[in-house]
């Protein structure tokens, strides 16, 4: 049996089927139906925010936020992130200005941000990589100093905290992903979250073509609505989420225990004083100590049916269209991470420690052969 990163967590099937039947019987499939409303209310309570506006996916959610904040010109973001973060800006006609990251946290290096600010800069997009918070105070101070909008791509950060505050409540607005590969999923989906009443009101408008009332269009909008069937999956997933978190942590801690026995490979840390979803089992391969490259490890695992992921290889700035549009960019920390990070199967992909033992055995075998 193959194992791969990103296998979905499936909630109680009978509960989901009952909700699906209710949707079909009421014939309310979309357009802010009762399932969506219930999910938004429950998520707001769970996340500790005033407003949750569900969307069909996080990419569309970020596009809506870019419009809401009136961003133009240039926006600064980390080079080490999923390509969607950059695509959102480029799609909206905004130049993504990439910034290198801190090699220890994998998040944007706030010390390097100010040097990238120009007269065309209108915003900073922070990305909470692996659900670990980026340097909020430093970014907020820079945004205030230079009159910039600060917003967050919180795709990885569902249910995590920063200084005991939910990450989703940081700054004025952020976007979560509920894609099938996330710890909490709605098949596909996401949410715009904010404590700002006016931003929430405008977000709801823009995500429904900017209809205010039956036929009054008040501006430029888009169809970003979540359907009832996706919300039903979300409600069932939320009922099951505590079990998912406990499973994720057990998987992560077992990996950490076993990998500590192998020289040259280590897992990223999740500080014990904060809440985490432990969804990402991220290893770093030190080629000099381990005895072979990350890519060799990746290929060896793949040959044995273990489909690990090289996040976020090769780096946004080394991917098209950005390497063609903005040639010559180099970010040493990002490039080093892209060449040594490997996401191992976790979450819903692991149903027993024996599967982890198999992965550990393959990793140790590769090391022994190469050394």
Describe the structure.
By secondary structure, the chain is α/β, with parallel strands linked by helices. The chain folds into two domains: 3-239, 3-Layer(aba) Sandwich (Aspartate Aminotransferase, domain 2), CATH 3.40.640.10; 241-308 and 345-370, Aspartate Aminotransferase, domain 1, CATH 3.90.1150. It is built from 14 helices and 14 strands. The protein has helices at residues 13-26, 34-47, 58-68, 83-91, 110-113, 136-145, 197-206, 228-239, 241-259, 287-290, 294-303, 322-325, 332-340, 353-370, and strands spanning 3-4, 51-55, 74-78, 95-99, 121-127, 149-153, 161-162, 165-166, 174-177, 190-194, 265-267, 281-285, 306-307, 341-344. The strands form four sheets. Strands 2-10-9-6-5-3-4 form a seven-stranded mixed β-sheet, with helices on both faces. It has a three-stranded antiparallel β-sheet with strand order 11-12-14. The longest helix has 19 residues, at 241-259. The chain starts with a strand and ends with a helix.
């Amino acid at each position: 049996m193959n194992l791969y990163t990103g296998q979905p967590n499936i909630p109680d099937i009978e509960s989901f089927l009952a909700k699906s039947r209710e949707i079909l019987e009421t014939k309310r499939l979309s357009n802010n139906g009762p399932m969506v409303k219930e999910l938004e209310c429950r998520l707001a309570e769970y996340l500790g925010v005033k407003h949750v506006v569900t969307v069909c996916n996080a990419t569309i959610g970020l596009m809506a936020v870019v419009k809401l904040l009136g961003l133009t010109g240039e926006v600064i973001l980390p080079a080490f992130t999923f390509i969607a973060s950059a695509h959102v800006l480029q799609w909206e006609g905004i130049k993504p200005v990439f910034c290198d990251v801190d090699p220890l946290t994998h998040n944007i290096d706030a010390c390097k941000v100010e040097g990238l600010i120009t007269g065309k800069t209108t915003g900073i997009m922070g990305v909470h990589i692996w659900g670990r918070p980026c340097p909020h105070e430093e970014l907020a101070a820079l945004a205030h100093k230079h009159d910039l909008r600060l917003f967050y791509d919180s795709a990885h950060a569902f249910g995590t905290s920063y200084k005991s505050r939910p990450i989703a409540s940081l700054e004025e607005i952020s976007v979560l992903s509920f894609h099938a590969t996330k710890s909490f999923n709605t098949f596909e989906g996401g949410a715009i979250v904010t404590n700002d009443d006016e931003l929430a009101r405008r977000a709801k408008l823009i995500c429904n073509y900017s209809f205010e009332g039956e036929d009054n269009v008040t501006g430029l909008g888009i169809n970003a609505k979540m359907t009832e069937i996706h919300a039903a999956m979300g409600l069932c997933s939320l009922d099951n989420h505590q079990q998912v978190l406990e499973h994720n942590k057990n998987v992560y801690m077992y990996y950490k225990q076993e990998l500590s026995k192998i020289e040259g490979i280590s897992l990223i840390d999740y500080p014990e004083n904060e809440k985490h979803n432990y969804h990402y089992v991220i290893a770093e391969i030190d080629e000099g100590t381990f005895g072979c490259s990350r890519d060799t490890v990746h290929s060896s695992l793949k040959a044995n049916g273990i489909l690990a992921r090289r996040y976020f290889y090769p780096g946004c700035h080394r991917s098209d269209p950005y390497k063609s549009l903005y040639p010559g960019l180099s970010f040493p920390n990002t490039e080093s991470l892209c060449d040594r990070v490997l996401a191992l199967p976790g979450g819903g992909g692991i149903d027993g420690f024996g599967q982890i033992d198999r992965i550990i055995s393959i990793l140790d075998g590769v090391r022994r052969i190469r050394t």
